Amino acid sequence: ARLRKRWTSAIYAFFSPEVDIVYKNGRRAHVFSCAKSSCDYTTRRYLDTGDRSTGNMRKHAESCWGEEAVERAMQTGCPEKAREVVVKSILETGRISTYFTRKGKAAVTYSHMQHTRHETRIVKDEGFLSLMKTGRPGYYVPSPSTVSRDIKLVFARTRKRIARLLQEYDGRLSFATDAWTSPNHRAFVAITVHLEVNGQPLRMLLDLVEVAKSHSGMNLAEAF
Predict the structure, then answer these.
(1) What is the SS3 assignment for 180?
(2) Which of 43, 81, 188, 204 is spaced 20 to 30 A from 161 at the CA atom?
(3) Ranges under pLDDT 70 in the chain
(4) How far apart, in whole angstroms, are the C-alpha atoms of residue 93 and residue 161?
(5) CA angle 103–104–110, rounded 5-degree value
(6) Max CA separation in the chain (angstroms)
(7) Whole-number Å distance between alpha carbons of 14 and 64
(8) What are phi and psi of 180, to 5 degrees?
(9) Exposed, middle or buried, 103 (CB in 10 Å: 0-12/13-18/19+)?
(10) DSSP alpha helix (H) spans, the chain
């Protein structure tokens, strides 16, 4: 409890408040576990070093939860508030906040969750490489870092184009939701926008989020 009072950085919000104590070679250490149930990441801090650095914790949080979530959490100033405002929201709805407003030419705001490292590492999988290079042994397959960089670049550019389209659109925007539960009992909601551009109907997927509670009208409205 005494040491816990020193954990004032908001980055601790992304880790379980229940910290394990382990001993290795006679040394005592605290083990911090990622608060996301689907992640098994842990980091160890030995008590005999006096080290309270959170660099590794932040690096993992940005990779697992997203840089936007970490930045929002750090703005709260403390782990308790960050856990309540940011982490709880992500665990329950799948994002920090998602809403679309159009007030004059005000910016359309929304959030996203980035891919984790597991998705980009597929390009190093032996089976995947064998499939891609069958009959074409010289076929170039980019590295995980290149794939990750290009995904972020394409996403950023696409986000700007969609935001500009929605901001400048003079007609009516129709939003729709589609809710379902996956075979592993995880509940999701897709949010789409429908409009007409140059006389042609256009529909786009805006977000796909997890809503870990009843898909009632009220809960869907809150998720939207």
Answers:
(1) strand
(2) 188
(3) 1-4, 93-120, 215
(4) 25
(5) 45
(6) 73
(7) 9
(8) -160, 170
(9) exposed
(10) 55-64, 67-76, 79-82, 88-93, 117-120, 126-133, 144-168, 217-223
**Mapping DSSP to helix (H, G, I), strand (E, B) and coil, where does residue 110 land?**
coil
CA 114, CA 135: separation in Å to the nearest integer? 34
Shortest CA distance to 152 belongs to which of 104, 113, 103?
113
Helix (H, G, I), strand (E, B) or coil at 189: strand
Of the candidates 82, 81, 91, 77, the one whose C-alpha atom is nearest the C-alpha of residue 38 is 91
- The residues that bridge with 100 in the sheet, in sequence order, are none
What is the structure's pLDDT at 109?
47
Bridge partners, 190 (sequence order): 178, 208
Question: What pLDDT is attached to residue 174?
Answer: 92
- State residue 198 phi and psi, 5-degree precision: 55, 40
Report CA 98 to chain centroid distance, whole Å: 12
Reported as a single tens digit per residue, the pLDDT across 121-160 is 777 888 888 888 888 888 888 888 888 888 888 988 988 8
Give the Å distances, CA to CA, from 145 to 65, 153, 156, 186: 18, 12, 17, 30
